[in-house]
Amino acid sequence: MKIIIINYGAGNIQSIKFAIQRLGYDAILSDDPEEIKAADKVIFPGVGEASSAMQKLRASGLEKLIPELKQPVLGICLGMQLMCNYTEEGDTKGLGIFDTNVIRFQKDVKVPQIGWNQITSLKSPLFNDISENEYIYLVHSYYAPVTETTIAESTYGITYSTALQKDNFYGTQFHPEKSSTVGEKILENFLKL
Question: Catalytic pick from 63, 89, 177, 188?
Answer without folding.
Answer: 177
